[in-house]
Amino acid sequence: MFMLRKSLLVFIAVATVSGCALQQIPKEALQLSQESPALRKLQTRRFETEDEQALLSAGTAVLQDLEFTIDESETKLGLVAGSKKESAYNVGEIAASAAVAIITTALRFPQAMPISKERLVRASVVTRLGENDKSVAVRVTFQRVVWDTEDKVAKSELLEDPETYRVFFEKLSKAVSLEPREF
User: Fold this and answer.
1) Within the chain, what is the greatest distance between any pair of CA atoms?
2) CA nearest neighbour of 157 among 145, 149, 148
3) What are phi and psi of 35, to 5 degrees?
4) pLDDT on residue 69
5) What is the 3-class SS of 108-162, one letter each residue?
6) Contact call for residues 16 and 93 (beta carbons, < 8 A)
7) Are 139 and 126 in contact (CB under 8 A)?
8) pLDDT of res. 71
9) What is the CA radius of gyration of the chain?
10) Using an 8 Å Cβ cutoff, are 85 and 69 in contact?
11) Choices 1.20.1560.10, 3.20.20.30, 3.40.50.300, 3.30.310.80: CATH for 39-88+116-182
């Protein structure tokens, strides 16, 4: 009985180790894309202040001003995350769906084309005290998830619209009365 248990344990250990060895991370998964530096520049500003908490607090207020609900806040780590739900109905999609329904009904196989219904926009603000402790870097990211009328995720993306980031940093700058510098 003892030998059977020992053999079973050895078999389980070997199976576990061999299963882990088969799964390898693709090399490109750990490489930054060509657009990464430009995107980071868009998302990050440096403020000449030592008060990281004041910037994080102002970032929280700006998110709330932009109608985000604060979901998580870890001030000791310099992180605030928020989200807001919005309608994603689009007149063009509705018209296209109606056209598809009319055509497929005429061809005697009615089909409904799902359209965007709702979107969730997430934002996260991260602060980091600079190396010389005389400045604070603030990075904000915005992501969007869109669900269709069949409650399936139709789109999930990082927002790269420069205007979205410009508005955030403009409001943050006014809130703390400091001019940001690009990172």
Assistant:
1) 76
2) 145
3) -85, -10
4) 94
5) CCCCCCCCEEEEEEEEEEEEEECCCCCCEEEEEEEEEEEEECCCCEEEEEECCCH
6) no
7) yes
8) 95
9) 25
10) no
11) 3.30.310.80
